[in-house]
Design goal:
The complex is a heterotrimer. Chain A is 74% helix and 0% strand. Chain A has helices at 19-41, 48-77, 84-94, 97-103, 105-112, 124-128, 131-136, 142-173, 176-204, 217-242, 252-283, 286-294, 299-318, 322-326, 328-354, 363-386, 397-401. In chain A, helix 8 packs antiparallel against helix 9 (176-204). By secondary structure, chain B is mainly α. Chain B is built from 16 helices and no strands. Chain B has helices at residues 7-15, 26-38, 43-69, 84-108, 118-139, 165-198, 202-211, 219-252, 264-290, 299-329, 333-344, 348-360, 368-372, 374-401, 416-439, 445-450. The longest helix of chain B has 34 residues, at 165-198. In chain C, the strands form two sheets. In chain C, strands 1-5-2-4-3 form a five-stranded mixed β-sheet, covered by helices on one side. A two-stranded antiparallel sheet of chain C has the order 6-7. By secondary structure, chain C is of the alpha+beta class. Classes of the chains: A mainly alpha, B mainly alpha, C alpha+beta. Chains in contact: A-B, A-C, B-C. Chains B and C meet through helix 2, helix 6, helix 8 and helix 16 of B and helix 1, strand 3, helix 2, helix 3 and helix 4 of C.
Chain lengths: 406, 484, 414
């Protein structure tokens, strides 16, 4: 293909955006969230079931959002040009993190109200009886948690807004200096991203089992973030093309690269999970093994096995060949597969805390997913439809359109 | 702010300067690089080689003394059973990782700038792995029984212990050595053919001819070659992750504080790439001057390497931070003590050297001046390698010298044999590297030719003057990938 | 650009291999390749100094099957690693136990499985590439052409082989010239290369020589020998000491094991001082330190040091029986746990110095003897320090009578 590709794309902006989908999704999301909240309150267990289902769904979509933010920062950092055609979509995913910040409120409220249904350290009485929690209480206490959560969401929102806003601004001005500036900012942005994601993972997930710790945990959650986002990107790109946008701009070459990255992060997730598990298994120290041992009992053993085979081994083999990434059908199949497995992973992490003996999946879980998902995805489409679907005056757009894979 | 920038300037800032400077054609690329192997050996080479061989002899002497007298000639004793030996092993293996990263990972991510440095980096990898392998080999005591490490059938039904990370290490490093040599050799075949076709003496013709396998540049052969190259790159990428992860398992599978922590695998890999790139810079900054390769190893290449050092240095700093936080968060007084002891105990000097060299010195690469001055980056690269040596030393020795039982605490001091063996290993490394520079193609000529403007015909867009605005570009580093 | 249109012919007697056409730009080569492909040639090739993007398409080269071979060999490596590990530590090898780990636990098998997969795959990749590419091939007819040596530098070539059905000497030559070739040369089949006799002899001798070491090993493994083993490290193999049950010609009864000579005592083992060594005076445990022990600040410090090393694990820093072993036992809710004695408590307060010394030396109840680890002088210093610890702590609650009894006063006094 000619490197001097025509950058005047006719389908770079859709009439009416995704209005047909965005608003209904967000309304449905709001309704489901409210329904879940009400149902959760009525269960009489101080929101225990609701909070766990809600946190699972929340972490699911937060991972996608953070994956999007990571993708945007990374593409700027390494000066990649292949991804320009899909970068706007990624920016919109990232810029929906503030929606999640608002959706975090039920969890935050529970913690501030010293409700230990979710995080046992939220209740000072529990802390008083546990010397380990007392030691950790300067970190694991409701106020510090709240301040840090505010900090994380602020960092992510500011970064997401910066990259999105400047990119949209470039749509008008075509100013190439913006690209250079974005690259300069991306380096410290990546550092902020890394640390904030790590401590968010510690706070939101690792503190569910406050006696346990694992230094790799931040990277562990990050692997899920990157992987789930790549799957989402494939699906969103396809959706945009289905709606009539970017029909030629996103070509099989781009999907190939998205597929490669999805494969890479499936492998990366496997590598990190294996490292974490094997090291704890090998040293066999009771304080550490409890995390995995409990997830090998009863129904949870099945879930653990599903993770090993379906989150790693099967998709690894399945996505090994070049064909699987260049066939749109196969790529979409694996994307959907990985997004289902992503839920299993979050479920395995969070819901075990709710019931360590039975694998309980019910209406509340579905409502939370639909609720948070509806609002999150609806917002992505809303923002995406409001501007051009690609950064139309990005200096590297031509290269991206002409891109051919190995 | 935008209107003042002139079009070429902004294009260079967006797309980067040309990969190859100096208006090269395939012919001049061949000449510039081949001439390094063909000219009369410069005096500087002989002097450097003499020093290197001196170091190598020193290594031989120390190893000979070690084997005939025993491991007691080192400073090792209870409780510090591993010190310089394993530090040096991890140090050298880590350095090797940059070569594989440059060859494999930068290839998969279509970073064309790797073509100028991949050959010498791969060579560095092979030689670093050789240096690394000597240390576990000689530290076993009865070196003549080292073959017991391999699963060879024997009449005693004795097999290696596959449940030990030390054995996983044997497999990992052996595999890594093999694959690195394969990758390096396969990459060299077309360039060896180039040297063969230019060779004048009978010996040179025979040697280059033999090792280039009769390569004639047939496109049908190139097709399979490129596919094989891609596969080796795809194999090497997880391999390089796994090798240093397995090395980290040597420590992380234990129970002692400071060693047993789950972040070790990715942390070690990041550290390895960090030290490896530092060594590449240490080697190539003088090499490009002395061998006339500045048109290929351009300031852009050097700057990219500095950025990678900055990135991996930050990753190492991140790991330090998370480990330190977790030492407190865990509530385990042994974990906490291990880290306090590192910073303020008897080895505080090693710890602070490590922090200064690893976390602080690469931060200088935030400044463009440091990323573009060969002298500054050369000095920083040396500091980084010193820091990375200290990192392994701090991890190994501080955790061993004071763990759970105070009655077992002790202090390790290296003996002169420890020190001279390490110095000698540099002799081995530089002997091999200097031989490489003298006799083998230092830059991947065939690969450089693929990134020259116009290399793939005029349909691929090259060297046009940029149109007004930023839509069209004067890029010479288009993401073409390799032909399949 | 000059276009030489002459066909260079090397002579009619040798068989023609094909025609070699030279080009000087990638564009020319790409164009020529497309035309060759479209003209229906099948046995032809292009030669370049580097792989030109798009040339495969221009030539109509199909994707190689190499990746499949690699994949299957990778699977072989994976399987080999699995079977090897399951077998070596269990099925066919000696099953030794390592810290309670399963003989073939999949987490511990993982790394080696991965490495062997990669190793097999990588070796296969290179070998298959060489085999499919028909390398090494040192005598290709094109090498005889002088210009062809520029193929590895900057020139581009097309070779059309004579065995192609569409090949005709003159017609194909004209065709190539029409593509813009600068020069068209005839290639002749390589003459059979006669391997020099000397190489044949060397090969035969080398093969035979290579068989000798395995033959020696085989013989050594399957026969017995009366010969003495070869010793490389003399002073390790022949250490100047006698081992148990060893014979020697030095003594008449040829035994290296000797009984102690009757009536002799080893130097330093006279062991006359019962008080110092056993803690008894006249067969009884009493209070008071042996004369050999100088009671001063140094002794106290030594006692403290030794106490901290040997005793605090169970008895704690203040001797109250709350050392880390005890705390751990409580933590893990160890059943049948007998707490270490509180050395500042009643029972120990009542013991004499000799009895405490005896307890350290020979152990007591669940406590192991420490006589083997601590020299007698240090044991006394531990007793000294222990007494200091006891004095430093508040007495257990006592009636006035009990206090008096301890002080050695009559019960009932005030």
């Amino acid at each position: 293909m000619d490197a001097h590709a025509n950058t005047n794309l006719t389908d770079a902006k859709l009439e009416g955006g995704f209005g047909k989908f965005a608003l209904p999704l967000m309304i449905a999301g709001l309704v489901c969230t409210a329904a879940a909240y009400i149902m959760g309150n009525g269960a009489g267990d101080s929101q225990k079931q609701f909070l766990h289902s809600y946190l699972t769904a929340f972490l699911y979509f937060l991972a996608i959002g953070l994956g999007g933010l990571f993708f945007v920062i990374l593409q700027h950092l390494v000066g990649a040009s292949w991804s320009i055609t899909v970068r706007r979509i990624a920016e919109c995913v990232a810029v929906s993190i503030p929606v999640l910040a608002v959706l975090f409120i039920p969890i935050l409220l529970a913690v501030i109200n010293k409700n230990d249904a979710l995080y046992m350290w939220a209740n000072p009485e529990t802390i008083a009886k546990d010397h380990l929690l007392q030691h950790k209480s300067p970190w694991l206490n409701p106020n510090a948690f709240a301040i840090r959560a505010f900090l994380y969401f602020s960092i992510w929102s500011v970064l997401a807004f910066y990259f999105h806003r400047t990119s949209v601004k470039q749509d008008e001005s075509g100013d190439a200096e913006i690209t250079v500036k974005q690259r300069t900012i991306s380096a410290p942005a990546m550092i902020l991203f890394g640390f904030s994601l790590t401590f968010a993972a510690f706070d939101f997930i690792m503190s569910l089992t406050p006696h346990w710790y694992s230094t790799i945990f931040g990277i562990y959650y990050f692997a899920s973030c990157a992987m789930s986002f790549m799957a989402t990107l494939a699906l969103l790109s396809k959706f945009v093309q289905r709606c009539g946008g970017l029909k030629t701009a996103i070509s099989i070459e781009h999907y190939h690269d998205i597929g490669k990255l999805l494969f890479t992060f499936v492998f990366f997730w496997g590598y990190i999970s294996f490292s974490q598990f094997m090291l704890i298994w090998y040293s066999n120290i009771p304080e550490e093994t409890e995390f995995f041992l409990h997830r090998m009992e009863g129904g949870w053993m099945t879930v653990s096995l599903v993770l090993i085979f379906c989150h790693f081994l099967i998709p690894f083999i399945g996505m090994l060949s070049r064909t699987s990434k260049r066939s749109r059908a196969l790529l979409l199949f694996w994307s959907i597969w990985m997004l289902v497995m992503h839920y299993v992973q979050m479920f395995w992490l969070v819901k075990h805390n709710y019931d360590s003996h039975h694998v309980a999946f019910g209406l509340l879980d579905v409502l939370c997913m639909l609720g948070i998902g509806g609002l999150f995805i609806g917002n992505i489409l809303r923002v995406l439809g409001g501007n051009a679907l690609v950064p139309v005056k990005e200096p590297r757009l031509a290269k991206s359109l002409a891109f051919q894979n190995i | 702010m935008s209107t003042q920038a002139t079009a070429p300037d902004i294009n260079e800032r967006v797309f980067g300067p040309p990969l190859v400077t100096g208006h090269h054609t395939p012919k001049t690329v061949t000449e510039t690089v081949s001439v390094v192997n063909e000219w009369k050996t410069p005096r500087a080479w002989y002097i450097a080689f003499g020093a290197a061989v001196g170091g190598l002899s020193l290594l031989g002497l120390m190893i000979g003394y070690l084997i005939t007298t025993g491991v007691g000639v080192w400073g090792l004793n209870q409780p510090v059973g591993w010190a310089w030996d394993i530090t040096n092993f991890v140090f050298w293996v880590g350095i090797g990782h940059a070569g594989t990263l440059i060859s494999a990972v930068l290839f998969l991510t279509r970073q064309d700038w790797r073509t100028a440095i991949n050959r010498s980096a791969e060579a560095m990898t092979v030689f670093a792995v050789i240096c690394a392998a000597t240390f576990p080999g000689i530290h076993v005591g009865r070196v003549w029984l080292a073959y017991w490490l391999f699963p060879i059938p024997n009449q005693m039904q004795m097999w290696p212990n596959f449940r030990s990370p030390l054995l996983w290490d044997v497999f990992a490093v052996s595999t890594y050595a093999t694959v690195s040599i394969l990758f390096w050799y396969m990459g060299m075949v077309p360039d060896l053919a180039t040297l063969r076709d230019r060779a004048t003496g009978k010996i040179k013709q025979f040697a280059y001819g033999f090792f280039s396998l009769g390569w004639r540049g047939s496109m049908r052969q190139w097709h399979r070659y490129e596919r094989a190259y891609l596969i080796l790159a795809a194999l090497s990428t997880p391999l390089v992750l796994s090798v240093h992860s397995v090395v980290s398992f040597d420590f992380a599978t234990s129970v002692i504080p400071g060693w047993h922590t789950t972040i070790f695998p990715p942390y070690f890999v990041a550290g390895a790439i960090f030290s490896g790139f530092a060594m590449v810079v240490t080697l190539l900054v003088p090499a490009r001057e002395l061998m006339g390769l500045k048109d290929f190893i351009t300031p852009r290449h050097l700057e990219n390497m500095c950025k990678i050092m900055l990135a991996t240095g930050c990753m190492v700093g991140y790991a330090y931070g998370v480990e330190f936080f977790t030492a407190w968060y865990s509530g385990s007084k042994y974990e906490g003590f291990a880290f306090i002891n590192r910073a303020f105990g008897p080895y505080w000097w090693a710890y602070w050297s490590m922090v200064t060299c690893n976390v602080i010195s690469p931060q200088l690469f935030w400044f463009k001046k440091c990323r573009t001055s060969p002298i500054i980056m050369w000095v920083i690269s040396i500091f980084i390698n010193v820091g990375m040596w200290f990192e392994r030393f701090v991890i190994i020795v501080t955790s061993l010298h004071r763990d759970y039982l105070p009655s077992s605490w002790g202090y390790f001091t290296p003996s002169i044999v420890d020190i001279l063996t390490f110095v000698g290993s540099f002799g081995l490394f530089f002997t091999l590297f200097l031989l490489f520079c003298r006799f083998l193609p230092v830059v991947a000529m065939a690969e450089i030719k693929t990134v020259l403007p116009g290399a793939h015909g005029s349909h691929h867009g090259h060297g046009h003057a940029p149109a007004a605005g930023a839509a069209h570009t004067a890029d010479v580093s288009h993401g073409h990938g390799h032909a399949h | 650009m000059s276009h030489g249109h002459d066909v260079v012919d090397t002579g009619p007697a040798e068989r023609t291999h094909g025609l070699l056409a030279e080009f000087s730009t990638p564009d020319a080569l790409l164009d020529a390749s497309r035309k060759c492909r479209d003209a229906g040639f099948t046995k032809w090739d292009a030669c370049t100094p580097y792989p030109i993007h798009g040339l495969e398409g221009a030539m109509g080269i199909k994707m190689t099957r190499l990746p499949w071979v690699v994949f299957f060999m990778g699977l072989t490596g994976f399987t080999t690693a699995t079977l090897l590990q399951i077998g070596a530590n269990g099925a066919f090898g000696y099953a030794f136990h390592i810290s309670g780990k399963p003989l073939a636990g999949w987490p511990s098998m993982g790394p080696v499985m991965f490495e062997l997969t990669v190793l097999f795959s990588a070796l296969t990749t290179l070998l298959t590439m060489a085999v499919f590419n028909n390398l090494p091939l040192f005598n290709h007819p094109a090498f005889k052409v002088e210009n062809f040596k520029h193929v590895t530098s900057h020139s581009f070539f097309v070779i059309v082989e004579a065995r192609d059905p569409k090949f005709t000497k003159a017609g194909t030559a004209d065709f190539l010239k029409s593509l813009g070739a600068e020069k068209v040369t005839t290639l002749t089949e390589p003459t059979k290369v006669e391997i020099p006799k000397i190489l044949k002899y060397v090969a035969i001798i080398a093969t035979c020589a290579a068989l000798i070491p395995p033959a020696i090993i085989f013989r050594a493994r399957n026969t017995h020998s009366e010969n003495v083993k070869i010793h490389l490290i003399d002073d390790m193999d022949f250490q100047p000491k006698f081992r148990a049950q060893q014979t020697t010609t030095f003594f008449a009864d040829k035994s290296a094991d000797r009984l102690a000579i009757p009536g002799t005592v080893a130097q330093g083992e006279l062991n006359l001082d019962d008080h110092l060594l056993k803690g008894t005076v006249g067969g009884k445990f009493l209070n008071g330190f042996p004369a050999a022990i100088k009671i001063d600040d140094e002794a106290m410090k030594r006692g403290q040091k030794m106490f901290n090393i040997y005793c605090t694990a169970c008895h704690g820093l203040a001797g109250n029986g709350d050392g880390m072993v005890h705390q751990r036992a409580i933590d893990i809710q160890e059943s049948n746990w007998v707490p270490p004695t509180n050395l500042a408590g009643e029972t120990t307060l009542k013991l004499t110095d000799g009895e405490i010394f005896n307890a350290i030396t020979n152990g007591i109840r669940n406590m192991q003897p420490y006589g083997g680890q601590i020299v007698p002088e240090d044991r006394w210093k531990i007793v000294l320090y222990l007494r200091a610890l006891q004095k430093a702590q508040p007495l257990p609650a006592k009636t006035a009578d009990q206090v008096n009894e301890l002080k050695g006063k009559k019960v009932g006094a005030n």
